């Protein structure tokens, strides 16, 4: 059995209307509360038993939860805030995207990204179709680079399959645009 600082067993507070056992702790278990800390900091001894008000009890439970949530959300909020209003189309990524023997895809990736960003339609459905067409065209371009750059027979085979399937997807999406009365891309 847990005892308080004076060696006495904690009293049963279940009849005080609190449903949570955590809220039924004695005041000596709540030494992190500002009122109790202030008493100790001012040279006074901790009160033997000080019954916290209901708002104080709620605060004791909610503040740590809110602090934890704030800490967890900080990286996502910082990343989102850092990119609000940024226009990536005016940025020069060419130095980052220079092709190398190990990664010859940079220019194709940038081209696909720019075309996807520019693709727009009259509604969300048309915009999605136009962005997906550019996405599939980017996959075709990257697969063509893989065919030119890789000596691995398995990679070359998959790249050829990707070109065939991505061109089929592009044709399907363009047919959807025409069915909607929109010009194909």
Automatic annotation (TrEMBL):
Name by which UniProt lists this protein: DUF305 domain-containing protein
Family matches, as InterPro entries: DUF305_CopM-like, Ferritin-like
Region (Disordered): 1-50
Organism ancestry: Bacteria, Pseudomonadati, Pseudomonadota, Alphaproteobacteria, Sphingomonadales
One Pfam family this sequence matches: DUF305
Biological source species: Sphingomonas adhaesiva
Domain DUF305: 80-177
